[in-house]
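In this supplementary section we document a worked example of the pipeline. Step one takes a protein sequence of length 157 as its only input; no multiple sequence alignment statistics are reported here. Step two produces a three-dimensional model, which step three serialises into structure tokens for compact storage. The input and output of this example are shown verbatim.
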Amino acid sequence: MILDRPRHADIIAAVRKAGGSVSLISDGDVAGVIHTAEPDKTGIDIYLGIGGAPEGVLAAAALRCIGGQMQCRLILDTPERRERSAKMGISDPRKKYEIEDMVRGDCLFAATGITDGRMLDGVKFGKDIVETETVVMRSITGTVRRIKGEHRRLTKF
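The serialised model returned by step three reads:
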């Protein structure tokens, strides 16, 4: 699975040249990473791409909860990024980060769907009820909970 962005054109071409099939997504890169931990359900074995560090940490937290693995590197391709990372204590800009480097100890992951996706239904607005779907995961127990919420619209307080 690869996020469909121009920056990934070379990665997509290389995977296809090697004989791999590519599932492109337009958004939902954190969900895409989570799908790799459920290949029997999703058909996704690996997620490749260049994305944001905050999304990478979120994905790492989810994978820690469900037994996945992840490796990444920072892309410090501008002087501003190199300077910012140095201020944050990054001494080796080429370091390969393992999942344990990104998320330590017991962690929780929670996400609520905003729009419909492969992992979660989006928010549904009814006349008097707003429906949501949320997933909550915990690393120490491996528990995954799906919560279908009904939120009543109150007209008076």
